[in-house]
Amino acid sequence: MVTRMQPDLSVRIGKLDLAYPTLMGSGCYGSGAEFEPFVDLARIGGVVLKSVTRAPRLGNPTPRLVHTPAGMLNAIGLQNPGIAWYLAHDVAKFASRPCKVIGSVAGFSVDDYAVVCEQLAARDEIHAIELNISCPNVASEGETFACDPRLTARVVRAARATTGKTLIVKLSPNVTDIAAIAREAEAAGADALAVVNTVRGMAIDVDAWHPRLGNVTGGLSGPAIRPIAVLAVYEVARAVKIPIVGQGGIETVTDALEFFLAGASAISIGTANFTDPRVPETIVDGLSEYLARRKLASIRDIVGRANLGFANAYQFEGDEG
Amino acid sequence: MPTLSTGERVHVTKIVDRRTPAADVVVLGVRAPQLARFAKPGQFVMVVPPAGEVASVALGIYEAQGDRMSVLFFVSGKRTTELARLQEGDELTITGPLGNGFFLDDAPSEVGIVAGGVGVASVLTSAQELLKNGCRVQLYYGARTQERLVDMDLFARAGCEVHAATDDGSFGYRGVVTDLLARAARPPRLLLACGPSPMLRAVARVAAEIDIPAQLSLEETFACGVGGCWGCVVPIVRTSAQAPSFPPAVLGGSDVVNARVCKEGPVFWAHELRW
Ligand SMILES: Cc1cc2nc3c(=O)[nH]c(=O)nc-3n(C[C@H](O)[C@H](O)[C@H](O)COP(=O)(O)OP(=O)(O)OC[C@H]3O[C@@H](n4cnc5c(N)ncnc54)[C@H](O)[C@@H]3O)c2cc1C
Ligand SMILES: Cc1cc2nc3c(=O)[nH]c(=O)nc-3n(C[C@H](O)[C@H](O)[C@H](O)COP(=O)(O)O)c2cc1C
Ligand code: FES
C-alpha cells in the first residue's frame, strides 16, 4: 500500500478550530439538520446558522427568490422567531451537530446586536458568532452598518464587549472602499471577517411591468458575484491581519482555491448547495488532492499566495486572540 | 447521513427511458430503486441540472414502481431545456424524496383530483394509491389545449374517471377546470389539487362553496428544496399542524406564520392557507 501524507485542512479562525476550512453560508443551510440526509456534516467545517434578530420577523412577501444568469436573487427578509423563542426552542438542538456551529446575529440598532450577541454567545451550543451587518434585504437600516465605517466600528465594539467567543464580522460588497470598513472592524475587536455578503440587485417581469421580487430589491449570490468577491477578499487581506472567510459563488475546488490564494483562511459555501448538496465534500476532497499533488502540508501554506503585498501572513496563529 | 427510514438522500441514477408525450413535454424514467420504494404520493425531487445551471429543479415524482421512477416536465426555461437534452443511458443526480406529500391515510371513498398543466406530474401516484385502496377517483384535468393534456389514457387505464377541460375547447369542456368541478353531478368528498396558483385558488373557493376539504400542492420558486433557505414560503394559520416553530401572535397580533413549501409542504389544507 502506498502511504501518502494527508494534507492538513484544519484552520483556526480566531479561537475557533475548524477540522475543515469550509463553512456553510448563513441563511443557505438552515440549522444544518436540513442537509443532514445528503452530506456528512462531520466533513464540513461548520454551519453558520440563519441570522436571528431581537424580535420575531415574518420576513418578506414572496417571491423571495428569482433565478438569474449564473446566480440568484434572494430577499428573504430575515424571517426568524426572535432571540427569546430561538434560545428556548431551537438552540438546544444544535448540540448534536458533528461540526462547528456559528450563530449569526442581525439587527437594526447597535443595541440589538449587543443584546442578541450576548444572549446567543452565552450558549455552549454556539461555538462562535457571526455579525451579519450586511443584509441587503431589510428595509433601511440592516445594511447601513456595513456601509459606514463609523457604524461598523460602533456595532462591532458593542458586540465585542459582550463575549469572548470568536467574533466574525460579515462585510458587504456594496461599498466603495471595503478595506476601510475592514480596518474599522478589526480595530473594534473583530476576530475574523466574512467577505462578502450578497450584491444588491433586482429583476423585472417585463410582462407584468413589475419587479420580480416581493421585496423589489434583493441580494445576488452564486457564480455571478465570484469575481467581485475574490477582489474584495484580495483587498481586505491587504488591509487587515485577522483571518478572512471568503465567500461568493464558490462551486468547485478551483473557485475555492481562488479565495485561499487571494487571502482567505477559510471559505463559505452558500448557493452551490442548492445546485448539489455534495459540493462541500467535493471541495474538501479537491483541496486535499490539490495540496497532496503539490506536496504541501497544509491548506495554510497557500493562503494569500497570489496576493501581492499580503498583510495577513498568519500572524494570528498562536497567541493572537 | 442518509436517513434509512425515508430513503431521503442524493441518488445518482441512470436514465432508462425517455418519451415526449407532447411537444415540449418530456418524461424521463430513471433506475432508482430506493426512490421508487420510499416515494410517497405527492412528494417531489430536486434534480441536478446536468450542464451547470445554478440551482436544482424541483419536479414532482410522476411514477414510482419497482426499480423505476419518473419525472414529467414542460420545457419552459433554462434548466428544463438542459434536462430535455438528456437521453437514455445518461446519468441524472436526484435528491429526494422530499416534502410531505398528500394526506391519503383517512381519505374518503370518493376523491376528486384536480390537475392543471404540469401539475399532472404530481398526482398520478396519488390516484393509483387511492384506486388500490378501493376509492372512486375522478380526475379533473385542465390545460391550455388538447395537445397539452398529456397521458390522460394513463389515468383512465389506472381506473380514474377523467373529466377534461381546455382553455380553447379543443378537447372536453371549454373553460377552466374548476368550473367543470363546480358543476359535478356527484361532487367528491375530498379534493387533491396541483397546478398553477390561480387554479389552486379557484379550487380552494369551490371546495369552500361545496363544503369539502381540499389539499393543495403548491408551487413556489425553490432554491434549496430541503428547508434550508426559507425562500419558498406561504402564509398559514399558526394553529396548523404544519406551522413551523414560531412564537404566537407576532407582529401586531397576526396569528399567521410563513411555512416552507418545500419542507412543511408542498401539500397544505386549503382552509389553513392565508395567501
Ligand atoms: C414542488 C414542485 C414540484 C414541481 N413539479 C414540476 C413537475 O413535475 N414538472 C414541471 O415541469 N415543473 C415542475 N415544477 C416547476 C419546476 O421546478 C420549474 O420551475 C420549471 O420547470 C421551470 O424550470 P426552468 O429552470 O426550466 O425554468 P426557469 O428558467 O427557471 O423559468 C421558469 C419560468 O419562468 C419563465 N421565466 C424565466 N425567466 C424569465 C424572465 N426573465 N422573464 C419572464 N419569464 C421568465 C420561463 O419562461 C419559465 O416559464 C415544480 C415546482 C415545485 C416547486
Ligand atoms: C437564500 C439566501 C439567504 C441568505 N440569508 C443570509 C442570512 O440570513 N444572513 C447572512 O449573513 N447571509 C445570508 N445570505 C448570504 C450568504 O450567506 C452568502 O454570504 C452569499 O450568498 C454569498 O455566497 P454564495 O454565492 O456561496 O451563496 C443568504 C444567501 C442566500 C442565497
Ligand atoms: S426552497 Fe429553500 S426552504 Fe424551500
Key structural traits:
heterodimer; A: about 325 residues; alpha/beta; TIM Barrel; 8-stranded parallel barrel; 4-stranded antiparallel beta sheet; 16 strands; globular; disordered C terminus; B: about 280 residues; Elongation Factor Tu (Ef-tu), domain 3; Rossmann fold; 2 domains; 7-stranded antiparallel beta sheet; 7-stranded mixed beta sheet; 7 helices; about 20% helix; binds flavin-adenine dinucleotide; binds flavin mononucleotide; binds FE2/S2 (inorganic) cluster
Provide a compact summary of the structure:
The complex is a heterodimer of chains A (321) and B (275). Chain A is an alpha/beta fold.
| Strand content range of chain A | 15-25%
Fraction of residues of chain B in helices? 10-25%
What is the CATH class of the largest domain in chain B? Alpha Beta
Q: What is the CATH superfamily classification of the largest domain in chain B?
A: Nucleotide-binding domain of ferredoxin-NADP reductase (FNR) module
Shape of chain B: globular
User: With helices defined by DSSP (H or I, 4 residues minimum), what is the helix count of chain A?
Assistant: 9
User: Helix content range of the residues of chain A, please?
Assistant: 25-40%
Tell me which oligomeric state these chains represent. Answer: heterodimer
Most extensive contact: A-B, 43 and 42 residues
SS-based structural class of chain B? alpha/beta
Report mean pLDDT of chain A, rounded to a whole number: 93
In total, how many beta strands of chain A?
16
Low-confidence stretches of chain A: 315-321
- Largest sheet of chain B, if any? 7 strands, antiparallel
* Average residue pLDDT of chain B: 93
